[in-house]
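Here is one chain, start to finish.
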Amino acid sequence: MTAISPDIALPGPRRRSRSLSVTGTLAARRFTLTTRTPRELLVPLLTPVLFALVIAPALKKALHTSASYESYVAVGTIGLLIPLNTMFSGISVLVDQESGARRELLAAPIHRALLVAGNLLVAVATTALQIGVLLGFAVLRRIHFHVTGTGLLWFLAVTLLFTVAMYGIAETLAARVSRSEEYIARLPAIAIVPWFLAGSLFPIDALPSFLTWLARLLPLTHGLALVRYGLLNDPSGLHNIWEMQSATSMALLSLLVVTVFAVAVTTAAVRVFGRTAVR
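Its structure:
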């Protein structure tokens, strides 16, 4: 059963304007709820900051590696931060479902996809804030980056798309499970396990050959390779995936993988939310 909007007969520009206004209102509501519980902002940041500021320097010293490895691990923690933050955002959806205003929102004359969009905007904003904090700490720790104008665009594009994709997974899972405990039990397999296979701490070609091929199929592998290409001007991760000569071509292919992943998962999230919203 789909919510019917009273402005369905409005001209396109007015309908789009109302949808944007509704999405902004829903996002503001979600942001207010998030800031009331600061742990949603702080908890997902603790592990990546620990990796970037403590574990990366310790590994560099213990393994007698160069400063570039410290940068390698610090950047790799972005691939842990995004899934953790977006999955924690999904818990808010469950709380809203159990004790919040979800029923009232579903009864409102708005399209249900806008509810997902409002939550997504807040997840993107909080993730961007946390990535900024992580990189700021890394700079203070004198971890070096090599960012160009083009590299910054690659970085921004892939982090945005991957955040959208991971929030789509969080929203889908929140719609499919009925309890927070069940949601949290599935979180490590979704947010943490792929991180160890995706070239976060070492190149994927250091894995056994069958795991290397598996890693090439993970969107996170493509995302991290693009992040390193953007922030470190290091195309080695892309080469380990595609084994091509042109860094730009490999970057475009990996960006396409992440884009398709984001579109597919977000579409699925909207559909699942629409089907399960009335339960």
